[in-house]
Structures are given as C-alpha cells and as structure tokens.
Amino acid sequence: MQALRERIRRADAVVIATPEYNFTLPGVFKNVLDWISRGDDQPFAGKPVAILSASQGPLGGARVQYDLRRVMMFVNAMVLVKPEVFIGSAAGKFDASGACTDEATRKFVTAQMAAPRSGSAA
Ligand SMILES: Cc1cc2nc3c(=O)[nH]c(=O)nc-3n(C[C@H](O)[C@H](O)[C@H](O)COP(=O)(O)O)c2cc1C
Predict the structure, then answer these.
(1) Which of 18, 21, 30, 65 most suits a substitution to test ligand 1, by most atoms within 8 Å of the C-beta?
(2) Which among 53, 89, 85 is positioned nearest to 68, based on CA atoms?
(3) Complete domains list, the chain, with CATH
(4) Is 27 in the pocket of ligand 1 (CB under 6 A)?
(5) Which of 6, 20, 78, 117 sits at a 20 to 30 Å CA gap from 12?
C-alpha cells in the first residue's frame, strides 16, 4: 500500500478506470481507496484525477462514477468534471489483448485525456 501511495504522490495525474458493482464501487477497489485515504499525507490531496467506467450494460457504469466522485471529493482530489466517459456494451469494444477497437470510444477517451485541467464545456 505504501508503494501505491508513493506512485500516486509522484504522478502528475491519476486516471481511474472502474467497473460498477451493484450500482457502486467494487468492494475491493473501495477498500484500496480507504487505505490510501488515511493520514495527513494521503496522496490524492490536490491531485488531478480523471474517471472512466466500463460495463457490459448500456449505461457504461454511469452510477459508479457519482459514488466515486463523492469519495474523491473527500480526499480533496481535483477530479475532472467533463468530458465524462461511460463505455457501455464494453464486451464488444475491446479485442483479446485489451485494446479498444471502437472508434467512438477511442474518441471519447482521447478527448478526456486532452481536456484542460478545468474541463471542457461539452
Ligand atoms: C458483483 C457484481 C455486481 C455487478 N453490478 C453491476 C452493476 O451494478 N452495473 C453494471 O453495469 N454492471 C455490473 N456488473 C457487471 C460488471 O460491470 C462487469 O462484471 C465488469 O465489466 C467487470 O468485469 P469483471 O467482473 O470480469 O471484473 C456486476 C458484476 C459483478 C460481479
């Protein structure tokens, strides 16, 4: 856990990609965030963070993102608001190696990665 905290601390920014479990964060992932969050030196404070989610369902994990934003607010992260990225029907959008094969999804992710820190209007 110390190694992960240190990697976050040293990073210019953090990208969090997560699935949605029962409308919220997978328990193991939440547990990691909880461990990271302890102490005055927790590394998410002031850290730029972008969030994306993927799901086999049509909503692409839309609900988990709002719970995750709430958690990240508590640890004082600077979470990018827009553009949001929800990857629905994800099973058909990646090949066996994990590479994204869906052009529209690639555009959404690229736009998020290129967004200014203050976010885009879209
Ligand atoms: C316990 C559990 C709960 C899930 N709940 C949701 C859900 O609320 N919404 C959703 O879109 N997908 C849900 N899924 C499907 C996950 O989005 C899907 O499993 C995800 O893409 C992660 O893949 P993995 O289980 O192989 O890690 C759930 C899966 C599990 C195992």
Answers:
(1) 21
(2) 53
(3) 2-114 (3.40.50.360)
(4) no
(5) 20
User: Residue 11 pLDDT > 80, yes or no?
Assistant: yes
Rounded percentage of the chain residues whose pLDDT exceeds 90:
91
**76-110 per-position pLDDT tens digit:** 999 999 999 999 999 999 999 999 999 999 999 99
Give the Cα separation of 44 and 27 in Å (integer).
Answer: 19
Three-state SS annotation for 96-119: CCCCECCHHHHHHHHHHHHCCCCC
pLDDT at position 122, please?
67
* Stated pTM of the model: 0.90
Alpha carbon 61 to its chain's center? 11
Q: Give, using CA atoms, the residue closest to atom 30 of ligand 1.
A: 21
Q: Which atom of ligand 1 is nearest to the CA of 54?
A: 21
Query: Strands (DSSP E) along 12-69, which ranges?
Result: 14-18, 48-54
